[in-house]
């Protein structure tokens, strides 16, 4: 009875979710995949606020494709928990990992190693944790 797609309109496929994550991570020095009610997510954001770093946040509980993105993050990073924090294209772990790197003095050097394309703030300002104006 005709052709149809098994993907609900507006819902990303696993491949699309993986591509979305890779695109966001490759265009932003710091990306936090988060949930608004998660205390560890707040911890990670606070660490980057403390060091004055600009970061992009994807709130999975507010994103149309949040569950699919979280599944793709599990495949990419080896963990399904949030936050999933990426710095300079690499997953550094979650909130406790981020805090520990900061306390060891290792986080700021990672942020400072970001390639120039990753430290230019997005023109639309979407998702930035810090005001870069």
Automatic annotation (TrEMBL):
This is Glutaredoxin-2, mitochondrial. GO terms for cellular component: mitochondrion. Belongs to the glutaredoxin family. Monomer; active form. Homodimer; inactive form. The homodimer is probably linked by 1 2Fe-2S cluster. It comes from Bagarius yarrelli (Goonch). NCBIfam families: GRX_euk. The keyword Cell cycle does not apply. InterPro entries: GLR_AS, Glutaredoxin, Glutaredoxin_euk/vir, Glutaredoxin_subgr, Thioredoxin-like_sf.
């Amino acid at each position: 009875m005709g052709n149809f797609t098994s993907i609900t309109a507006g819902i990303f496929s696993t491949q699309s979710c993986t591509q979305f994550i890779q695109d966001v991570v490759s265009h932003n020095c710091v990306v936090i995949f988060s949930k608004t009610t998660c205390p560890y997510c707040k911890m990670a954001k606070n660490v980057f606020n403390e060091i004055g770093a600009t970061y992009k946040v994807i709130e999975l509980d507010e994103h149309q494709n949040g569950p699919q993105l979280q599944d793709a993050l599990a495949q990419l990073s080896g963990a399904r928990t949030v936050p999933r924090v990426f710095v300079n294209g690499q997953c550094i772990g979650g909130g406790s990992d981020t805090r520990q790197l900061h306390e060891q003095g290792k986080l700021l050097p990672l942020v400072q190693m970001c390639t120039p394309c990753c430290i230019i703030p997005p023109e639309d300002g979407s998702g930035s944790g810090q005001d870069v104006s």
